[in-house]
Specification:
The protein is α/β, with parallel strands linked by helices and 189 residues long. Helix 2 packs across helix 3. 25% of the residues lie in helices and 24% in strands. Strand 7, helix 4 and strand 8 form a beta-alpha-beta unit. The strands form 3 sheets. It has a 4-stranded parallel sheet with strand order 8-7-6-9, with helices on both faces. The chain has a 3-stranded antiparallel sheet with strand order 2-1-4, with no helix packed on it. The protein folds into 2 domains: 69 residues, Alpha-Beta Complex (Quinone Oxidoreductase, Chain A, domain 1), CATH 3.90.180.10; 103 residues, Rossmann fold (3-Layer(aba) Sandwich), CATH 3.40.50. It contains 5 helices and 9 strands; from the N terminus they run E-E-E-H-E-E-H-E-H-E-H-E-H-E.
Length: 189
Amino acid sequence: MRAVRFSRFGGPEVLEIVDLPDPHPGCGQVWIAVRAAGVNPSDWKKREGLMDGELPQTMGHEAAGVVDELGEGVGDAAALPAAIETATRALDQLGVRSGSALLINGASGSVGSAAVQLAGVRGARVIGTASPANHEYLRSLGAEPVGYGGGLVERVRGLAPDGVDVRSTWLGAASCPSSSSSRAARSTS
């Protein structure tokens, strides 16, 4: 198996393409024959030593491919990219369900856009923050877009006068400092 790996922390120059033994799935796991791989913010954070300090590390956990081998105990299988798994787990932990009003900060990013769609399937009303350039994209996913920055709480209250039930963010807190005050808009999480 060919993989992108790093054995020391740093910039893109620490990445190398290596040949590794083919892995095989363990109990309850699947092997995916990867056809395309991508990177997300956790990849560069790991590469720079900001997360998960073990070395060496292999990149490309955001992948698309075909389930090629099933581990013991697996009947039918499908694999989800990291962004979808993260969004699913977060929505489960937040208790998002039909009738929930949800504010997603960073709704046009990889995890945020997955969360918008998954929350919509659950029957939740989704308000999503994004730059104006991404508002049409959020509408196409089923969210009501609002812009970042000053006045965010008032814009959210304009869309949801009774407040939101749940607030979630996939941005650093400093990316949208005024969102911390949106808890006043009846947020429970």
